[in-house]
Amino acid sequence: MSTEPEPTEKTEPGTRDAALEQEGTEAAPEQEADTGDGVSEGGDPVGTDADGAEKARLSEAEAELAAQRIERERIERRKAEKQGPVESGAKLSGKAADLLAAVRAVESGAKPVAAVFSEPEPPRRPAQEPVRSRPVSAQAAGGAESVGAPAPQTVEAVRRVLAEGGAPEPLAAQVTAVLGEGADDELRADPWQLLRVTGVRPEQADGFARALLGAECAPDDERRGRAVTVWLLEQAALAGHTALEMPALTAALAQRGVPDADAAVQSTIAEAEALVFQDALDPAAPEPAEDDEEGAERPVRILVGLERYALAEESLADGLARLINSVPKEDGSAEDWERAAASAKGSAAELIRAVAAGGLVLHTGGEASLAEPAALLAAARGLGLRAWAATHSPLGRDRFGALLEAGSHAPARQVATVAGLLSGAEGPGRDADGAFDLDLLVVLDAPQLDVETAALLVESLPDGARLVLGGDPAVLWSVGPGRVFADLLAARICPQVASRRPDPGPLGELVSGIGIGELTQVEAPGKEVVIVPVRDAGEAVHRTVQLVADSVPRAIGVPAEETQVITPGHGGAAGTRVLNAALKERLNPGPGRFGGFDPGDRVAYSPAPGRTLPGRVVRADAEGLHLSCAGEPVVVPKERVEQSVRHGWALTAHQAVGGRWPAAVVVLPGDAAQALSRPWVYTAFGRADRHLSVVHGVEQALPRAVAEIPAKPRTTRLPILLRTQSPTAG
Fold this sequence. Notes:
This protein is an alpha/beta fold and 730 residues long. It contains 26 helices and 21 strands. The protein has a seven-stranded mixed β-sheet. Strands 8-7-9-10-6-11 form a six-stranded parallel β-sheet, with helices on both faces. Helix 19 (505-515) runs antiparallel to helix 24 (678-685). The longest helix is centred in the first third of the chain and has 22 residues, at 60-81. The two termini are 31 Å apart.
């Protein structure tokens, strides 16, 4: 039963180590409030050095980009192979009928818009040489820009157009990378194409268009309507949605000053820049009979989405159905599997039996439950299977690898990160058909899978392979669009095994209570949980530095380099920027001669959006900033440092997810209350292994958020696609 802790007496700012030494502060946090989490600002995939034999080997960045190119080619093939219109939803009328008519007119031959339901099985990716761990060099450009820099004359032509329209000329390289050759002509013909560049907002594109078009520029210009529609869908993807319901999209268009929102959406669909879907609200409901009353309709919802996410969700649903329906490879008799299960205990035995019987299994649980997939890997390898595990972050990889070695389950090197597995930098490599060369893949941190990453993983598994998706469903969802793990749990299309291993100690008790919406008071005789009340952001920063540098090392025995500060966002008076500046001044002062960094600085390196690698600065020279990230040397060129490297003493919860530290200091400044949610609190508090200090300044907002504010909903199509693939699901 949830109980609210008694208020803790506040300490004076100048009291040394008051946080850990005052009586009564070991209670559960009663008033803590966190702010909404900021997404890590990422750069581009890490590249490789270009020496000798290394030239012939794919870097992580090149492998990822190659996979993306192959995915685009596959999409084009799928578009060409589509036959006939989408047949989801019957007897539509009004706006829905108009949209469907627009789509079918395009499908008749005018424009190559792809449907999203039936297709032949996609071809495997070609095999590629696995790339093993080695020193890497971050490429100087981002995303598409790193695949062949745009011609200088094209960039210069775009720069002239930008200058003519009053837009910042430094955008020229980004615009050229997005629009390609002929970008200058495309901008002149449609100035609102500037919205395709990350960071540009509609009002800025409007000003650029007015400068170029003069009197021809008007709010009802269909070019503007299309561009703003695509921009809104991209913004929705950043918020986790793979599609938007029609009423939400048209309302957002109206707010952006688009006079005829319906016409803007239809134009966007007709130009093949978005897709429209009519998803039955109840797939099991029968279609209206021919003799039904005129106007009878099967209840549907109308959604609009970008093609890349639509096809990713469809590919994922198809791939999951393939795994479920394929017969697992011969890997020993049922008696062998049963002996392996009998040698395990509790939920681990259930997991082994479930995996023995089918191709897809879901496993849920907290940190302690990791012992169960470890036991599964041991059993699989004992049966001769090629079994691997994959985690979200290098910290998670190393932690699970240590668990495997400690239990003599398997070598730690049979654990990879998801990104490394897909790129070929880690893992077993691929077979001649381009599929992973394995029989069983256990993906931990499954809530962090977005739809595109999940589709690539599933598509890369060979027929007959087994897939286990495991993780804690209460943590924050993926940075990218979709909520794959939550959708699968809700769909009930495969066996689900819930661990019965609770996380131990006061920290485990506290976090478990948060997971069910209760902020309970816990007994913490070893100062496992400490509350540090603060009055304002300045005091929060002061207390945080005191905890990391003095109190926690002396009272708990955890050094500063093993303590992670977690705060809701990058900005604000107690965000990561301010906290990192204060922590650097105390822990590693220096002039910051290379982009604000010095040797020994703790950093967070983002090789790609949504991915964060903790590391340290080794040195800086003409090549760039030399880092050590998860034991691997990384070189970030000077021009990429500002975009992809931050100081890392303080992280956001999204950056920290997938990792755990001996001690964590969670900072909840007073301006954080509006962004608090149960998943954020659960994730932030759950990063502590031995000790959690909470710098608390939001009074009753924290228990209110834990009790009343669940995860923000995301609009996805995966549930309807899964039900279509498996009508009996649920």
